[in-house]
Protein backbone atom coordinates (compact mmCIF):
# COMPACT_ATOMS: atom_id res chain seq x y z
CA UNK A 1 0.00 0.00 0.00
CA UNK A 2 1.46 3.41 -0.91
CA UNK A 3 2.69 5.22 2.19
CA UNK A 4 2.28 8.90 2.95
CA UNK A 5 5.19 10.15 0.83
CA UNK A 6 3.98 8.22 -2.21
CA UNK A 7 0.47 9.55 -1.76
CA UNK A 8 1.97 13.03 -1.56
CA UNK A 9 3.54 12.47 -4.92
CA UNK A 10 0.11 11.44 -6.26
CA UNK A 11 -1.19 14.70 -4.85
CA UNK A 12 1.51 16.66 -6.66
CA UNK A 13 0.40 15.01 -9.90
CA UNK A 14 -3.19 16.08 -9.28
CA UNK A 15 -2.53 19.62 -8.06
CA UNK A 16 -1.77 21.14 -11.51
CA UNK A 17 -5.39 20.32 -12.40
CA UNK A 18 -6.82 22.41 -9.57
CA UNK A 19 -9.12 25.03 -11.06
CA UNK A 20 -9.93 22.90 -14.09
CA UNK A 21 -13.33 21.51 -14.99
CA UNK A 22 -14.12 17.84 -15.60
CA UNK A 23 -15.14 17.18 -19.20
CA UNK A 24 -15.12 13.39 -19.41
CA UNK A 25 -15.07 10.55 -16.87
CA UNK A 26 -14.37 6.85 -17.26
CA UNK A 27 -13.08 3.84 -15.38
CA UNK A 28 -14.26 0.60 -13.87
CA UNK A 29 -15.24 1.84 -10.41
CA UNK A 30 -18.71 1.13 -9.11
CA UNK A 31 -18.06 2.96 -5.85
CA UNK A 32 -19.11 6.34 -7.15
CA UNK A 33 -21.52 7.41 -9.87
CA UNK A 34 -19.23 8.68 -12.61
CA UNK A 35 -21.71 11.29 -13.92
CA UNK A 36 -21.51 13.01 -10.51
CA UNK A 37 -18.05 14.25 -11.48
CA UNK A 38 -19.09 15.74 -14.82
CA UNK A 39 -18.76 19.52 -15.08
CA UNK A 40 -17.35 19.68 -11.56
CA UNK A 41 -14.31 21.81 -10.88
CA UNK A 42 -11.34 20.29 -9.11
CA UNK A 43 -10.89 22.77 -6.27
CA UNK A 44 -8.30 21.33 -3.94
CA UNK A 45 -6.18 18.29 -3.25
CA UNK A 46 -4.82 17.21 0.10
CA UNK A 47 -3.14 14.23 1.70
CA UNK A 48 -4.05 13.01 5.16
CA UNK A 49 -2.33 9.90 6.35
CA UNK A 50 -2.33 7.50 3.44
CA UNK A 51 -5.43 8.94 1.83
CA UNK A 52 -5.63 11.37 -1.05
CA UNK A 53 -8.53 13.82 -1.01
CA UNK A 54 -9.74 15.72 -4.05
CA UNK A 55 -12.33 18.45 -3.60
CA UNK A 56 -14.90 18.90 -6.34
CA UNK A 57 -17.49 21.63 -6.58
CA UNK A 58 -19.30 23.94 -8.92
CA UNK A 59 -17.12 26.73 -10.18
CA UNK A 60 -18.38 30.05 -8.90
CA UNK A 61 -18.78 33.23 -10.89
CA UNK A 62 -19.31 36.72 -9.54
CA UNK A 63 -22.82 36.86 -10.93
CA UNK A 64 -23.72 33.81 -8.92
CA UNK A 65 -22.15 35.10 -5.74
CA UNK A 66 -25.43 35.87 -4.07
CA UNK A 67 -26.87 32.56 -4.99
CA UNK A 68 -27.31 30.32 -1.96
CA UNK A 69 -25.90 27.44 -3.96
CA UNK A 70 -22.65 29.23 -4.64
CA UNK A 71 -19.35 27.88 -3.48
CA UNK A 72 -18.23 28.66 0.03
CA UNK A 73 -14.76 30.12 0.18
CA UNK A 74 -13.70 28.08 3.16
CA UNK A 75 -13.46 24.40 3.78
CA UNK A 76 -16.70 24.56 5.59
CA UNK A 77 -18.63 21.77 4.04
CA UNK A 78 -21.23 20.57 6.41
CA UNK A 79 -22.99 17.86 4.52
CA UNK A 80 -22.70 14.27 5.48
CA UNK A 81 -20.97 11.56 3.62
CA UNK A 82 -22.84 10.76 0.45
CA UNK A 83 -22.22 7.06 0.59
CA UNK A 84 -23.04 4.43 3.14
CA UNK A 85 -19.39 3.71 3.65
CA UNK A 86 -18.17 5.01 6.99
CA UNK A 87 -15.70 7.81 6.64
CA UNK A 88 -12.56 8.18 8.69
CA UNK A 89 -12.99 11.92 8.86
CA UNK A 90 -13.98 12.51 12.48
CA UNK A 91 -15.98 15.61 11.65
CA UNK A 92 -18.11 13.64 9.27
CA UNK A 93 -20.97 11.97 11.02
CA UNK A 94 -20.50 13.03 14.59
CA UNK A 95 -21.06 16.75 14.26
CA UNK A 96 -24.59 17.76 15.11
CA UNK A 97 -26.47 20.19 12.97
CA UNK A 98 -24.83 19.15 9.79
CA UNK A 99 -27.68 17.73 7.79
CA UNK A 100 -29.62 20.87 7.04
CA UNK A 101 -27.75 22.04 3.95
CA UNK A 102 -26.60 20.44 0.76
CA UNK A 103 -22.82 20.37 0.58
CA UNK A 104 -21.43 22.68 -2.07
CA UNK A 105 -18.01 21.12 -2.12
CA UNK A 106 -17.48 17.40 -1.81
CA UNK A 107 -14.28 15.53 -1.14
CA UNK A 108 -13.46 12.36 -2.96
CA UNK A 109 -11.27 10.20 -0.76
CA UNK A 110 -8.89 7.70 -2.38
CA UNK A 111 -7.47 4.80 -0.47
CA UNK A 112 -4.86 2.94 -2.48
CA UNK A 113 -4.33 -0.78 -2.63
CA UNK A 114 -0.97 -2.55 -2.85
CA UNK A 115 -0.39 -1.57 -6.47
CA UNK A 116 -2.37 1.63 -6.28
CA UNK A 117 -1.12 4.56 -8.28
CA UNK A 118 -2.04 7.82 -9.95
CA UNK A 119 -0.82 8.91 -13.36
CA UNK A 120 -1.16 12.23 -15.08
CA UNK A 121 -1.62 12.36 -18.85
CA UNK A 122 -0.50 8.76 -19.38
CA UNK A 123 -1.99 5.29 -19.19
CA UNK A 124 -0.09 2.56 -17.36
CA UNK A 125 1.19 -0.18 -19.65
CA UNK A 126 1.74 -3.82 -18.74
CA UNK A 127 5.33 -4.41 -17.70
CA UNK A 128 5.15 -8.17 -18.20
CA UNK A 129 2.86 -10.82 -19.53
CA UNK A 130 0.48 -12.74 -17.30
CA UNK A 131 0.56 -16.54 -16.84
CA UNK A 132 -1.15 -17.08 -20.18
CA UNK A 133 1.38 -14.82 -21.83
CA UNK A 134 -1.07 -11.97 -22.45
CA UNK A 135 0.13 -8.44 -22.05
CA UNK A 136 -2.84 -6.88 -20.42
CA UNK A 137 -2.63 -3.26 -19.36
CA UNK A 138 -3.81 -2.47 -15.81
CA UNK A 139 -7.44 -1.44 -15.76
CA UNK A 140 -8.01 2.10 -14.49
CA UNK A 141 -10.55 2.49 -11.70
CA UNK A 142 -11.09 6.09 -12.62
CA UNK A 143 -10.05 8.39 -15.46
CA UNK A 144 -10.88 12.08 -15.22
CA UNK A 145 -10.39 14.36 -18.21
CA UNK A 146 -10.15 18.11 -17.64
CA UNK A 147 -10.94 21.09 -19.80
CA UNK A 148 -7.23 21.95 -19.97
CA UNK A 149 -6.79 18.87 -22.16
CA UNK A 150 -5.01 16.69 -19.60
CA UNK A 151 -6.26 13.76 -17.57
CA UNK A 152 -5.68 11.86 -14.34
CA UNK A 153 -5.82 8.09 -14.06
CA UNK A 154 -6.30 6.20 -10.78
CA UNK A 155 -5.35 2.54 -10.37
CA UNK A 156 -6.13 -0.02 -7.70
CA UNK A 157 -7.87 2.24 -5.23
CA UNK A 158 -11.10 2.54 -3.34
CA UNK A 159 -12.91 5.85 -3.39
CA UNK A 160 -15.73 7.41 -1.47
CA UNK A 161 -17.31 10.81 -1.11
CA UNK A 162 -16.92 12.52 2.24
CA UNK A 163 -17.71 15.91 3.68
CA UNK A 164 -14.28 17.02 4.82
CA UNK A 165 -10.78 15.67 5.12
CA UNK A 166 -9.25 14.69 8.40
CA UNK A 167 -9.80 17.30 11.03
CA UNK A 168 -7.21 18.22 13.65
CA UNK A 169 -8.61 17.39 17.13
CA UNK A 170 -7.59 20.89 18.25
CA UNK A 171 -10.09 22.32 15.74
CA UNK A 172 -12.86 19.84 16.46
CA UNK A 173 -15.44 21.39 18.73
CA UNK A 174 -16.37 17.93 20.01
CA UNK A 175 -12.84 16.85 20.87
CA UNK A 176 -11.46 17.24 24.40
CA UNK A 177 -8.32 18.63 22.72
CA UNK A 178 -10.27 21.54 21.21
CA UNK A 179 -7.97 24.55 21.43
CA UNK A 180 -9.93 27.39 23.05
CA UNK A 181 -6.93 29.75 22.85
CA UNK A 182 -6.72 29.31 19.09
CA UNK A 183 -10.47 29.80 18.84
CA UNK A 184 -10.25 33.00 20.87
CA UNK A 185 -7.46 34.27 18.65
CA UNK A 186 -9.54 33.60 15.52
CA UNK A 187 -12.64 35.24 16.99
CA UNK A 188 -10.68 38.37 17.92
CA UNK A 189 -10.17 39.30 14.27
CA UNK A 190 -11.99 42.35 12.90
CA UNK A 191 -14.62 40.34 11.09
CA UNK A 192 -18.19 39.39 11.98
CA UNK A 193 -18.18 36.65 14.60
CA UNK A 194 -20.89 34.72 12.74
CA UNK A 195 -18.47 34.24 9.85
CA UNK A 196 -15.53 33.20 12.03
CA UNK A 197 -17.74 30.65 13.77
CA UNK A 198 -18.36 28.93 10.44
CA UNK A 199 -14.63 28.66 9.70
CA UNK A 200 -14.17 24.90 9.78
CA UNK A 201 -10.40 25.21 10.13
CA UNK A 202 -11.03 26.61 13.63
CA UNK A 203 -14.56 25.47 14.57
CA UNK A 204 -14.86 22.14 12.83
CA UNK A 205 -18.28 20.69 13.60
CA UNK A 206 -20.03 24.02 14.11
CA UNK A 207 -22.91 24.42 11.70
CA UNK A 208 -25.56 27.02 11.10
CA UNK A 209 -27.87 25.93 13.91
CA UNK A 210 -25.09 25.93 16.50
CA UNK A 211 -23.91 29.32 15.25
CA UNK A 212 -27.37 30.88 15.69
CA UNK A 213 -27.97 29.31 19.07
CA UNK A 214 -24.65 30.14 20.71
CA UNK A 215 -24.66 33.74 19.44
CA UNK A 216 -28.05 34.16 21.07
CA UNK A 217 -26.95 32.44 24.29
CA UNK A 218 -23.89 34.70 24.46
CA UNK A 219 -26.02 37.75 23.55
CA UNK A 220 -23.83 38.63 20.57
CA UNK A 221 -25.16 40.20 17.36
CA UNK A 222 -24.04 37.99 14.43
CA UNK A 223 -22.46 40.94 12.60
CA UNK A 224 -20.55 42.26 15.62
CA UNK A 225 -16.86 42.45 14.86
CA UNK A 226 -14.85 40.08 17.02
CA UNK A 227 -12.17 42.73 17.53
CA UNK A 228 -14.76 45.08 19.06
CA UNK A 229 -16.04 42.60 21.64
CA UNK A 230 -14.56 42.23 25.14
CA UNK A 231 -12.45 39.13 25.61
CA UNK A 232 -14.75 37.73 28.31
CA UNK A 233 -17.68 37.87 25.87
CA UNK A 234 -15.71 35.86 23.32
CA UNK A 235 -14.61 33.38 25.99
CA UNK A 236 -18.27 32.97 26.99
CA UNK A 237 -19.16 32.37 23.33
CA UNK A 238 -16.53 29.64 23.05
CA UNK A 239 -17.81 28.04 26.27
CA UNK A 240 -21.34 28.09 24.86
CA UNK A 241 -20.03 26.52 21.64
CA UNK A 242 -18.42 23.66 23.53
CA UNK A 243 -21.27 22.98 25.97
CA UNK A 244 -24.08 23.46 23.46
CA UNK A 245 -22.45 21.09 20.97
CA UNK A 246 -21.72 18.49 23.64
CA UNK A 247 -25.30 18.67 24.95
CA UNK A 248 -26.67 18.35 21.45
CA UNK A 249 -24.55 15.28 20.83
CA UNK A 250 -25.71 13.80 24.14
CA UNK A 251 -29.35 14.45 23.18
CA UNK A 252 -28.74 12.99 19.75
CA UNK A 253 -27.39 9.79 21.25
CA UNK A 254 -30.50 9.59 23.45
CA UNK A 255 -32.59 10.39 20.35
CA UNK A 256 -33.98 13.43 22.12
CA UNK A 257 -35.04 16.40 20.02
CA UNK A 258 -33.09 19.58 20.50
CA UNK A 259 -34.82 22.60 21.95
CA UNK A 260 -33.92 25.70 19.97
CA UNK A 261 -33.63 29.11 21.61
CA UNK A 262 -33.62 31.26 18.49
CA UNK A 263 -33.13 29.12 15.40
CA UNK A 264 -36.30 29.25 13.25
CA UNK A 265 -38.13 31.13 16.00
CA UNK A 266 -40.38 34.14 15.50
CA UNK A 267 -39.80 35.46 19.00
CA UNK A 268 -36.88 35.22 21.40
CA UNK A 269 -37.37 33.83 24.90
CA UNK A 270 -38.14 37.35 26.16
CA UNK A 271 -40.85 37.82 23.57
CA UNK A 272 -38.95 40.14 21.20
CA UNK A 273 -39.39 39.93 17.44
CA UNK A 274 -36.61 37.81 15.90
CA UNK A 275 -34.95 38.88 12.65
CA UNK A 276 -33.88 36.51 9.90
CA UNK A 277 -31.15 37.48 7.43
CA UNK A 278 -28.90 35.73 4.94
CA UNK A 279 -25.36 36.49 6.07
CA UNK A 280 -22.03 35.26 4.73
CA UNK A 281 -18.70 36.35 3.34
CA UNK A 282 -18.68 38.15 -0.03
CA UNK A 283 -18.91 35.55 -2.81
CA UNK A 284 -19.37 32.88 -0.16
CA UNK A 285 -22.32 30.92 1.05
CA UNK A 286 -24.99 33.17 2.56
CA UNK A 287 -26.55 31.41 5.53
CA UNK A 288 -29.85 32.20 7.13
CA UNK A 289 -29.17 33.78 10.47
CA UNK A 290 -31.74 34.34 13.22
CA UNK A 291 -31.09 36.89 15.93
CA UNK A 292 -32.87 39.16 18.36
CA UNK A 293 -31.85 42.78 17.75
CA UNK A 294 -32.94 43.64 21.30
CA UNK A 295 -31.02 40.93 23.16
CA UNK A 296 -28.08 40.90 20.73
CA UNK A 297 -26.73 44.42 20.29
CA UNK A 298 -24.48 45.20 17.35
CA UNK A 299 -20.92 46.06 18.40
CA UNK A 300 -18.28 47.36 15.97
CA UNK A 301 -20.53 48.19 13.06
CA UNK A 302 -19.49 49.95 9.87
CA UNK A 303 -19.44 47.92 6.71
CA UNK A 304 -19.13 44.74 8.63
CA UNK A 305 -18.70 42.48 5.65
CA UNK A 306 -15.71 44.38 4.26
CA UNK A 307 -12.46 42.51 4.54
CA UNK A 308 -14.03 39.19 5.34
CA UNK A 309 -13.09 37.62 2.06
CA UNK A 310 -10.28 35.12 2.46
ZN1 LIG B 1 -34.75 39.23 22.66
Average pLDDT confidence is: 81
What is the H level of CATH, i.e. the homologous superfamily of the largest domain?
A: MutM-like, N-terminal
Structural class: alpha+beta
Regarding quaternary structure, how should these chains be classified?
single chain
Q: Which sequence of strands runs across the widest sheet?
A: 1-5-6-4-3-2
**Largest β-sheet summary:** 6 strands, antiparallel
Brief digest:
The chain is of the alpha+beta class and 310 residues long. It is built from 6 helices and 8 strands; from the N terminus they run H-E-E-E-H-E-E-E-H-H-H-H-E-E.
Overview of the molecule:
The chain has six helices and eight strands, in the order αβββαβββααααββ. It has 310 residues and is α+β, with helices and mostly antiparallel strands. The protein folds into two domains: 4-162, N-terminal domain of MutM-like DNA repair proteins (Alpha-Beta Barrel); 169-291, Helicase, Ruva Protein, domain 3, CATH 1.10.8.50. Strand 5 (142-146) and strand 6 (151-162) form a beta hairpin. It is elongated, with a radius of gyration of 22 Å. 40% of the residues are buried. Zinc ion binds next to loops.
Amino acid sequence: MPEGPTVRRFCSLASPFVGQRVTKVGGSTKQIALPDLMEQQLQDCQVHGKNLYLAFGCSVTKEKADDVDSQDDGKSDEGCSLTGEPSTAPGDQSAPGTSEETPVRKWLRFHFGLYGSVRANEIARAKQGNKRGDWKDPSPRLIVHFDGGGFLVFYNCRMTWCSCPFVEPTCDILCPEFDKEKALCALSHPRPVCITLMDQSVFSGVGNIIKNEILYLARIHPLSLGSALPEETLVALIDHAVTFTAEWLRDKIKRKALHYHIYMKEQCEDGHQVLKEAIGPPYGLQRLTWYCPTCQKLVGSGDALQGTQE
